[in-house]
Amino acid sequence: MARDPLLDIVILIHDHADWADLCVRSVEHFTKNPYRLILVDMASQEQVTKDWLDDCEDRGHTVVRLPDNRSFSHGVNAGVEVGSAKFICVLNDDAIVTEGWDGALMQEASAKHVGLVGSRVIGSAAGHMGNPALVGKPPYLVFVSVCLRRNVWDAVGALDEQTFDGFSSEDLDYSWRVLKAGYELKVAERSIVMHAGSRTLAKTMAVGGDALAAQQAMHRNNEKYNARLLDKWGKDWVTEHAKLEPKVLVMSYHPNEWTRVEFMDALNGLKKAGGFPYVHGTTMRAAIHIARQTACDFALDNGFDYLLQLDDDATFPPDVLRRLLAHNKPVVTALAYQRKPPHWPCVFEVGDDGMLGRPLEGIEHTGLRKVDVSGYHCSLLNTRVIKTMREGLKNPDGTERVKGTRQYFGGFENKVGEDFAFSLNLKKYEIPLYCDTELISGHIGSSIVVDEAYKRSYEAQVRR
């Protein structure tokens, strides 16, 4: 429609003009940035659809007419090829856009590290686009409504028409190609699109109006192309990148055989509010550095993606896991204060001598902070961190340099605490450590230290 469009919007059409018209009308009404609408006719057979496409052309939209309904990949590639705008959007013909959808997509897609952005989808959609409860970076996006810069398209290449010569799995394949090219995937929360869900494909497969036969045919179709996806990417990649929810081990450390009632109440609250499952384990009467190292090895060796560590006297909100996961950092801790005077925050600088420097006072409620040293009273780490450290403990021939317990958190001979030893190991492997200063983890018991206000109150009493 626009002479110098900022956005090329590609929509594939194969009959079903009623839904397609709703889609196009919503684009015409709600798209505020200069755009070109490219309708790719995938060999429509119904006269009503042909007439409707002629009408769209009369309204100034571009219509690309293909001789056959070959594949989704072929149709998208043909549509993108006739465009020239900085941004490309692929939109399903049974999706309805809403106010601000285009600006929100392009804003997120403008970041150089972002390769592909999806809309928040209401209705039928898989993965992070259809489920706002999922946290972290999406492992893939579905092409209900996605946007990317043309220079990303040029770098990654067109959709794979040879492997995906039908209508399934090509969007996962392209998402992973974007990831492999070094870009990130993202969902634009303010770009809202409503989606009916595979209306055109379902109609095509509904032979004789048999809905059950259509479902069975679509299932066989998806299985066929999922198998091709597996052949192309391998089992390990597909297993890792088709997973929507992280596998989390929640580990608590108890010096005695009994568990505090308050702690278990909080743990139950975590399970109710977490939004996804986790496994809980405990250690009893073990030296803390041994207990933490054992938990790390168990988490890595049993396929967990994250390890949430909670001391037995930790207080935490029920959404602690979700909040820590949302940062998508290798290691992130909640801000805790020392139980005993002088109640320093348990985050420190490393001094010039390589030992503990000053505590970072006054950082509460200053957002996510990169720190040198932190306590692990309430912390979340990605198990890839443990994998990196474990590899670092090996000799060139693959044998382990340290016999027995791996010393991620130091050993019995250490003159420093296990928290400091682990933080120094992170520094050694150039793994950044973060503290969420908005998330305060206190202590259960008579000496509860929750925040900086308590610390100031204590210091005021001491000065009297």
Helix-strand layout with pairing:
Layout: E1 7-13, H1 17-30, E2 35-42, H2 47-58, E3 62-66, H3 72-82, E4 87-91, E5 95-97, H4 101-109, E6 114-123, E7 145-149, H5 150-156, H6 170-180, E8 184-195, H7 199-205, H8 211-233, H9 235-241, E9 248-254, H10 261-273, E10 279-284, H11 288-301, E11 306-311, H12 320-326, E12 331-335, E13 347-350, E14 356-359, E15 368-371, E16 373-374, E17 378-382, H13 383-392, H14 418-428, E18 433-440, H15 452-463
Parallel strand pairs: 1-2, 1-4, 2-3, 6-8, 9-10, 9-11, 12-18
Antiparallel strand pairs: 4-7, 5-8, 6-7, 11-17, 12-17, 13-14, 13-16, 15-18
Structural summary, described in words:
With 464 residues, the chain is an alpha/beta fold. The chain has 2 domains: 7-241, Spore Coat Polysaccharide Biosynthesis Protein SpsA, Chain A, CATH 3.90.550; 248-463, Alpha-Beta Complex (Spore Coat Polysaccharide Biosynthesis Protein SpsA, Chain A), CATH 3.90.550.40. Helices cover 36% and strands 23% of the residues. The protein is built from 15 helices and 18 strands. The chain has helices at 17-30, 47-58, 72-82, 101-109, 150-156, 170-180, 199-205, 211-233, 235-241, 261-273, 288-301, 320-326, 383-392, 418-428, 452-463; strands at residues 7-13, 35-42, 62-66, 87-91, 95-97, 114-123, 145-149, 184-195, 248-254, 279-284, 306-311, 331-335, 347-350, 356-359, 368-371, 373-374, 378-382, 433-440. The protein has an 8-stranded mixed β-sheet with strand order 3-2-1-4-7-6-8-5, sandwiched between helices. Strand 9, helix 10 and strand 10 (279-284) form a beta-alpha-beta unit. Helix 8 crosses helix 9. The radius of gyration is 27 Å and the shape is elongated. It starts with 6 loop residues before the first strand and ends with a helix. The relative contact order is 0.09.
